[in-house]
Design brief:
4-stranded antiparallel β-sheet, single chain, alpha+beta
């Protein structure tokens, strides 16, 4: 290990509104080309601190949120003698959901609309980076309650599947074109201004729902891709 430990990384991320979502040991290179890595740190966000920090430091540039995250994470990776990787890198692209499920066992699961459902944050969270650290780092204790059923496993109505005005989520997967076309239209203004209605329909984690400014930023970014 270098001159920084996992607790210091977590605290420095928290000071910038980011979260160390979890960590795991891996050396087989079987999860998206992480060959040679021994300890994998998964970084993301949930709650208002992330948007507040980004808003304070935002620059006028392409992909401002991705670039801001890189400015925080890259130096941390360098200090521990590791390497930072991001969902936008590639191809090949990071299998971010697979890595997140390994980093947060019992805390997240695939939802009917494709996003990962978290037992605390619901659908209002994201995974933004991975740091591959050499060596076998001590891992933090897992959260309590990871054996209890939660979220989609105990949800019979699945309101997230019925809230989309253009039924972009169905048995055939996610219809990106239908979603984008609706958000860009006059009828899609509620989605553009306040965020995905399917996310809002889920009863879990509503205290972590994005504020209007953040929701609008993400939807505008979605339209621009």
């Amino acid at each position: 290990m270098g001159c920084i430990d996992i607790g210091q990384i977590a605290r420095r991320l928290a000071a910038e509104g980011l979260k160390l979502r979890g960590a795991f040991h891996d050396g087989g290179g079987h999860d998206g080309g992480l060959a040679g890595a021994r300890t994998i740190l998964v970084i993301g966000n949930a709650g208002p601190a992330f948007w507040q920090a980004f808003s304070r430091h935002r620059r006028e540039e392409d992909n401002p949120m991705d670039r801001w995250v890189r400015r925080i994470v890259d130096p941390l990776a360098a200090e521990c003698g590791g390497r930072a990787r991001y969902p936008s890198d590639g191809p090949p692209y990071l299998p971010m959901q697979k890595l997140a499920l390994r980093a947060e066992p019992g805390q997240a699961m695939p939802s009917p609309i494709g996003l990962l459902m978290h037992r605390r944050y619901g659908l209002w969270h994201a995974y933004r980076a991975v740091i591959e650290c050499p060596g076998h780092w001590p891992l933090p204790d897992p959260p309590a309650g990871d054996a209890e059923m939660f979220g989609c496993d105990v949800c019979a109505d699945r309101p997230c599947l019925h809230a989309c005005p253009v039924r972009a989520f169905g048995a055939d997967g996610y219809d990106v074109a239908a979603c984008r076309g609706h958000v860009a239209s006059k009828k899609g203004r509620p989605c553009l201004a306040g965020g995905c209605l399917c996310r809002h329909a889920c009863p879990v984690g509503q205290d972590y729902a994005y504020p209007p400014g953040q929701a609008h930023f993400h939807m505008q970014s979605f339209l621009g891709r």
